[in-house]
């Protein structure tokens, strides 16, 4: 691929924002030069638009093979490049077969053929009885593993018990890979006389202590096995202190929260608005303010969408029944503008965005030496965006398969102007320029 350069007065580099020229060749950043450097190649001058490393989202449910009517590689990865997401990592539970064996992983890899518009890696799953598949999956290239401590919503992906985790964690630790955990330890707690359309009742039905007890268990196991543990979609602010203490002890523990926990509050959700249903639930404003403080202080490492789509009928939009609706927020295309809109209102900076959406998630997936930063030798997975431009989200903009999203009608800051995958311009000014440029990302097992 021929040499070219991207020029901007606002490039987010590892040590801050700078004017400069990013020199790109053969899919890599070969140098970052001073703004007025003379170069003998084509220069794409984007003015004062922000140039940032592409968004890395390690929490996406693509659902293929087997549930392509829910999403699929084609629609998910097109939505990704429209939203500036240059690397996704697919969760193991919503495809059929679930990614808990080598044979299932091979089926998933086969399903990507001709359908990857952005880069995509994969998590394996830990379920009862699949301990003997963990090491072979590592050798096949999964980037780590996902386990649920409560019912996943998919019968083929049952929750792991503490005994299951004790078998899996020594193997995962041996390869220094992360174990991602959905932390809710459910018991027989029930809301008395629950009204199925009441959001307050749904919120009460998944209490914070379920999350807090599960996180406590994972911290103890993390310390015992020195296995990297990653808490997905933290929603209970009551766990922030125990997470902070675990990190102070030097445990290999990382944490994400989701855009929806930072953007929405329970007080704003009306009865019957099942497009907001997710698990753990979107909690009250006071709780979510504490999540923001933990993110800004580094106790929470980064933000990931947990894009979990389903056909509209499964969301029970007509009945408004929270007890029957599929739990999942559809949002991957809007990872950056949703977070930026909420962050901007809290005086956060665009450099925070680069940290929370690129640098830190690249560490989780073991690719911090090639992705997540604009630096010499890194992959030229880049986005150009306008931090001040606003838009109102409409169904017509959505590239993922189903147009159901709680963000519809929201006015958002941060418009994606261009997306580059390995130096190839794939999305520009609202148009897809080049498709099928994504690569399968494998680990080093």
Task: Tell me about this structure.
This protein is of the alpha/beta class and 445 residues long. It folds into two domains: 4-50 and 379-402 and 409-432, Urease, subunit C, domain 1, CATH 2.30.40; 54-364, TIM Barrel. The protein contains eleven helices and 18 strands. The protein has helices spanning 73-82, 102-111, 131-140, 162-174, 199-205, 208-225, 240-248, 259-263, 285-297, 335-344, 350-364; strands at 4-13, 16-25, 28-33, 42-45, 50-53, 55-60, 85-90, 119-122, 124-125, 145-148, 179-182, 229-231, 253-257, 302-303, 382-392, 411-421, 424-428, 431-432. Strands 1, 2, 3, 4, 5, 15, 16, 17 and 18 form a nine-stranded mixed β-sheet that branches. Strands 9-10-11-12-13-14 form a six-stranded parallel β-sheet. A three-stranded parallel β-sheet has the order 6-7-8. α3 packs parallel to α4 (162-174). The model has no long low-confidence stretch (mean pLDDT 97).
Helix and strand arrangement:
Blueprint: E1 4-13, E2 16-25, E3 28-33, E4 42-45, E5 50-53, E6 55-60, H1 73-82, E7 85-90, H2 102-111, E8 119-122, E9 124-125, H3 131-140, E10 145-148, H4 162-174, E11 179-182, H5 199-205, H6 208-225, E12 229-231, H7 240-248, E13 253-257, H8 259-263, H9 285-297, E14 302-303, H10 335-344, H11 350-364, E15 382-392, E16 411-421, E17 424-428, E18 431-432
Parallel strand pairs: 1-4, 1-5, 6-7, 7-8, 9-10, 10-11, 11-12, 12-13, 13-14
Antiparallel strand pairs: 1-2, 2-3, 5-15, 15-16, 16-17, 17-18
Helix pairs in contact: 3-4
């Amino acid at each position: 691929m021929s040499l070219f350069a991207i020029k901007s007065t606002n490039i987010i580099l590892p040590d801050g924002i700078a004017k400069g020229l990013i020199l790109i060749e053969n899919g890599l950043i070969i140098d970052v030069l001073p703004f007025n450097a003379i170069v003998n190649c084509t220069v794409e001058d984007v003015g004062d638009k922000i140039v940032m490393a592409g968004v890395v989202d390690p929490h996406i449910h693509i659902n293929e093979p087997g549930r392509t009517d829910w999403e699929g590689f084609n629609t998910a990865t097109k939505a990704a490049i429209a939203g500036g997401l240059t690397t996704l990592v697919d969760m193991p539970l919503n495809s059929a077969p679930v990614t808990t064996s080598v044979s299932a992983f091979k089926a998933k890899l086969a399903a990507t053929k001709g359908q990857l518009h952005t880069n995509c890696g994969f998590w394996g799953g830990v379920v009862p009885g699949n301990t003997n598949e963990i090491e072979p999956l590592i050798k096949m290239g999964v980037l780590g593993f996902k386990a649920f401590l409560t019912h996943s919503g998919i019968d083929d992906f049952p929750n792991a018990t503490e005994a299951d985790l004790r078998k899996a964690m020594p193997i995962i630790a041996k390869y220094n890979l992360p174990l991602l955990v959905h932390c809710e330890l459910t018991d027989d707690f029930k809301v008395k006389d629950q009204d199925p359309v009441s959001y307050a009742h749904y919120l009460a039905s998944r209490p914070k202590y379920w999350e807090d007890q599960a996180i406590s268990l994972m911290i103890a196991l993390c310390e015992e096995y020195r296995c990297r543990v990653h808490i997905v979609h933290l929603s209970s602010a009551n766990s922030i202190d125990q997470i902070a203490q675990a990190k102070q002890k030097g445990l290999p523990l990382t944490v994400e929260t989701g855009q929806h926990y930072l953007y929405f509050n329970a007080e704003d959700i009306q009865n019957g608005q099942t497009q907001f249903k997710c698990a753990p639930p979107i909690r009250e404003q006071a709780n979510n303010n504490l999540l923001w403080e933990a993110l800004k202080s580094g106790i929470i490492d980064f933000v990931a969408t947990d894009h979990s789509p389903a056909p509209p009928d499964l969301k029970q939009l007509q009945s408004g029944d929270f007890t029957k609706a599929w739990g999942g927020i559809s949002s991957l295309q809007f990872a950056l503008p949703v977070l930026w809109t909420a962050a901007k209102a809290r005086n956060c900076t665009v450099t925070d965005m680069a940290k929370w959406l690129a640098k830190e998630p690249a560490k989780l997936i073991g690719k911090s030496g090639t992705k997540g930063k604009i630096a010499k030798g890194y992959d030229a997975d880049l986005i150009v965006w306008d931090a001040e431009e606003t838009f109102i989200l409409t169904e017509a903009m959505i590239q993922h398969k189903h147009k159901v999203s709680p963000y519809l009608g929201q006015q958002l800051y941060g418009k994606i102007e261009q997306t580059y995958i390995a130096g190839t311009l794939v999305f520009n000014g609202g148009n897809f320029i080049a498709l099928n440029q994504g690569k399968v990302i494998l680990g080093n097992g």
